[in-house]
Amino acid sequence: MTRAMSSGTYLVANKNSTADASESYRTLRTNIRFSAMGRSSKILLVTSAGSNEGKTTTATNLAVSYSQENKKVLLIDGNLRNPSLHNVFPRSNKRGLTDVLSGQCGLEAAVSTTVIANLSVLTAGTIPPNPSEILGSERMQELLNEVSAYYDVVLIDSPAALDVSDAQILGTMSDGVVLVAHQGKVTKEELKRVKRGMDHVNAHILGVVLNKA
Asked: What UniProt keywords apply to this chain's record, in alphabetical order (predicted)?
């Protein structure tokens, strides 16, 4: 069951730009640039080892932080099993990523603007029976190529990396992976397993965000 979340709960970077948490997201934005070390950092995947570690909160606030730099940002809900971005930015989830990939609607019809300047959202859309196959399709790569040509930054919120293979699949299509770790919840061995999995598919982990520290 998807837990309903208000935008105020998540978007501290927009709600209070002077808060310490907002500054932390700006610092994260800067650190990502340095971690890329000359590589492209336009398409970024945000994931975690397990569920409820704060990856969606991190992805949404990082998206806000980029948009405050006057960059055109697209936030994609790549969690096709338990999507939540349509609740964070209250809107219908009838048309989204899966509907674009399956040809049920065009990209322009599925992407929606938000009340935050420069920030657009592509929700997950219709829940499919085969999320991994859809995310790993050639059409998904084509879609990311298409949106990266229009937007300055593309952020993808994915399922937990140790739950399903979706994060690894999306990691191969991304310029970098931001790994969110909930202090006191995730173990070192779990983080090592995520790293081994990402290394196996040649996905590039930019760094770790320590949450709830």
From this structure: Kinase, Transferase
